[in-house]
Amino acid sequence: MTLTNQPRLFILDTNVLMHDPMALFNFDEHDLFIPMTVLEELDSAKKGMSEVARNVRETNRLLDQIINGSSFEMLKAGLELENIHPTKRKADVSHLGKLFFETAPLDADLPVAIPSHKADNQILKVGLALQAEFPERNVTLVTKDINMRIKASAVGLHSEDYYNDRVLEDADLLYTGYEVLAENFFEQHSEHMKAWQSEGRSYYELKMAPNSHWYPNQCLISPNDSGFSAIIRKIDGELATLETLTDYSSKTHAVWGINARNTEQNMAMNFLMDPDIDFVSLLGPAGTGKTLLALACGLEQTLDSGIYNEIIMTRATIPIGEDIGFLPGTEEEKMTPWMGALMDNLEVLTASDGQHTDWEKQSTSELLNKRIKIKSLNFMRGRTFMKKYIIIDEAQNITPKQMKTLITRAGAGTKIICLGNIGQIDTPYLTETTSGLTYVVDRFKDWAHGAHMTLKQGERSRLAEFASEVL
Prior knowledge:
This protein is of the alpha/beta class. Helix content is 31%, strand content 18%. The protein is built from 15 helices and 18 strands. The protein has a 6-stranded mixed β-sheet. A 6-stranded mixed β-sheet has the order 7-10-11-12-9-8, with no helix packed on it. A 6-stranded parallel β-sheet has the order 15-14-16-17-13-18, with helices on both faces. Helix 9 packs across helix 11 (340-349) and helix 13 packs across helix 14.
């Protein structure tokens, strides 16, 4: 096998291609190598309806297009990745490397303690053999398996995680949805600021500072006791138009008996109650009120205002995309065990003060059951939802591709709410920087009809708050 003089040679582990078939085109000018063991593992994982199986089949189709009748000699010399249809790869890549397969047996010695019959260890042997055969090349194993990277380091093979699916370098850089203003903010902008009132709201137009990174529907809050809080309604060049927020902490603005308990919840409720905002993402740890706020605002706009005709709630079941299991009943009954958060919050929202009769309680329950539907993620593909208020809970366990599938189900008049905590990811190979929730927060921050809020302050109970701090 004759390799090119490109600086690096990447060996792709199976889990990289299972996670992202387009990884084949994400290594710029560098060469790729696929061991025979990887092809065997792809073949054994191609059956089924899971997301992994679909990705494997897509990978197989791409590999077939790349090979496209190439002779054995051409495979030995490496196949040009640029030959594939340009819509199948990144448009901004002007030159790609070559793809090599294991056309001849590659072997190397592993420590006696490592069994050589395991697939992962066979890939390690291939990596060590390539490293020995081409010492001038930077040979790197790319894998999302942490244990695989540890073993590679132990045998002297350089390895890396697959970085291309990362939305951000660090989760701490994720957009929060609000900004705390400087103490002298109004003094700085008073000279060129315009202010007016319309329909009981106050508006301000000002020139943004050169170092400002403001986005549509971002909230601005004052650091002092003035209580000033506003939302950026419009950005036109250097000019930003601000609108004061509704104070949902006031009893006069209660939503289904719920008031905002802190500034973050108040900003979130402004997003949830705004029909001009089609997509809202709420991120925060347990107990910050994400589900309760989303449900309360959904019930207000569905049952009272009539903006939406139905609330649909779904969540990622672990393992996501697989059969729910042999639970009895309909789709909703099968999903009920996963919907404890919905039931708990409905109890809070429909709690009576002891003056309502059992008949009134039963009537309220029946009404809610008719207007709140529980759906499984497994059956969302191909559907279109019109005038629905859709709540996606536990969104941190959804991949970017699955998130795209869900959000593109929205029809006219539909609002989608994504809830989650990127600190509680259970899906294999997803991290804080690669989660679908992180993906949509970052991609929607520039859109005029999307909004995001990061909730930090727990409001569940003093016991829960103390436990989260000390345990």
